[in-house]
Structures are given as structure tokens and as C-alpha cells.
Specification:
By secondary structure, this protein is an all-beta fold. Helices cover about 0% and strands about 45% of the residues. The chain contains no helices and eleven strands.
């Protein structure tokens, strides 16, 4: 299973970016994580295999939205109202779902990872 994240870049505070990740298929729960320099990898959000359930970290709730295009096997992270503290390398991850509503929240629950895309938010 290979994942490919894209869409990162430089944006001013208050701006928006949309990250994309090619999903391995419908039977996988998908997640986004981020890692800033000197910090541990941090959970951002996840979407279930059914694509009907999502869960977000408190730090991004209300600003970030995970969606999917099942026809294209793509997952997206829409990031609005970006803040300098959102600056990090963003990773997409996938895990074979044990059921359609499975929401893996921890990095160790994911078996497959993309290479990361840099998001930089300037103040």
C-alpha cells in the first residue's frame, strides 16, 4: 500500500490550503497527522472506512475538514483559518478497517504512511 500526500505550501495566517492523499481503497480508515520541528507526531483527524464518520483534534476542530472522493479513491484535508502553529509536515496514513465505523486515533494504529507534505503558515 503506497500513499501519496500532496498540496502543501506556504500560506499567510488566516488562509486556506487543501491537502490530498490517494487512498488505498474503501476498506481503509484514513488519517492525517502532523509533525513540527522538535515535536512528536500529532494526530489531526481521521475518517472511517464508511466515510460517514470523522474525528478531529481539538486544535483543528472547526477549521479543518476531512472529506473523500470515493470514485477517485482520494482523501482531502481542507484547512481553513490557518495559524502559524499549524506549520508542520503533514502525513496521511491508512489502516485496514476492522469495521466500517472504525476511527483510529493513534499513530501506532496505522500501518501505512505517506511521505509527508510541508505546510508553512506565515504570520
Amino acid at each position: 500500500v503506497q500513499l501519496q500526500a500532496s498540496g502543501g505550501g506556504l500560506v499567510q495566517a488566516g488562509g486556506s490550503l487543501r491537502l490530498s492523499c490517494a487512498a488505498p481503497g474503501r476498506t481503509y480508515a484514513m488519517g492525517w497527522f502532523r509533525q513540527a520541528p522538535g515535536n512528536e507526531r500529532e494526530f489531526v483527524g481521521t475518517i472511517s472506512w464508511s466515510r460517514s464518520r470523522t474525528y478531529y483534534a481539538d486544535s483543528v476542530k472547526g477549521r479543518f475538514t476531512i472529506s473523500s472522493d470515493n470514485a477517485k479513491n482520494m482523501m482531502y484535508l481542507q484547512m481553513n483559518s490557518l495559524k502559524p502553529e499549524d506549520t508542520a509536515v503533514y502525513y496521511c496514513a491508512a489502516q485496514y478497517a476492522v469495521n466500517s465505523d472504525y476511527l483510529p486515533l493513534r499513530s501506532k494504529e496505522y500501518a501505512y504512511w505517506g511521505q509527508g507534505t510541508q505546510v508553512t503558515v506565515s504570520s
